[in-house]
């Protein structure tokens, strides 16, 4: 259990942190390290990021913060590093999402190059209900602007089927891992040098810098915490 990397031309990075795949500060940093290491390995052609258990990711481990609120800085830095690692990974990252994808999970999926989802997958930012903000940067990569705003204000979820209609989920499937691996195999069959340059070029033409944008959001979470508004993070 934990964060496991299964190396190969298609490197699988598997999150298995019971009961809900909510990550501690160390867990976020471990995930960032695994993704960066995979991308730096010349043998890796594509990364598949997936999870075991009931859902893809439940965000931050709130219990850790309840026991030590001083860890908030470490947790925020860990999330920042994990999201950045997915975005900056030298090879394409495919997020294979099942069940819930909440808070930090949206940060991971939103920064992935391709999202494949199970039929039961849904995505949401419950931050406002918890007195926090963040990952709207990444949600905006998955849904249109006005829906993103509605989701932030109301904390309402969207389904994989809705995201498929927007084109931000490539496939909705009952065979999640198999479908993700099939897409990964199509990429892995290409010239690896060309694919790495393609990833670099696509990041270079992004209209919004997700690292700077997310860091701006995080400042408001610190403000809300200082004002005594925090009721946990997701």
From TrEMBL:
EC identifiers of the protein: 4.2.1.17
A GO MF term: delta(3,5)-delta(2,4)-dienoyl-CoA isomerase activity
Classification via InterPro entries: ClpP/crotonase-like_dom_sf (IPR029045), Ech1-like (IPR045002), Enoyl-CoA_hydra/iso (IPR001753)
Highest taxon listed in the record's lineage: Bacteria
A Pfam cross-reference name: ECH_1
Protein keywords: Lyase
Record's keyword annotation contains Lyase: yes
Top-level enzyme category: lyase
Similarity-based family: Belongs to the enoyl-CoA hydratase/isomerase family.
PANTHER family xrefs: DELTA(3,5)-DELTA(2,4)-DIENOYL-COA ISOMERASE, MITOCHONDRIAL, ENOYL-COA HYDRATASE
Entries under NCBIfam families matching the protein: PRK07938.1 (NF005925)
Name this protein carries in UniProt: Enoyl-CoA hydratase
Organism annotation: Nonomuraea soli
Highest classification ranks of the organism: Bacteria, Bacillati, Actinomycetota, Actinomycetes, Streptosporangiales
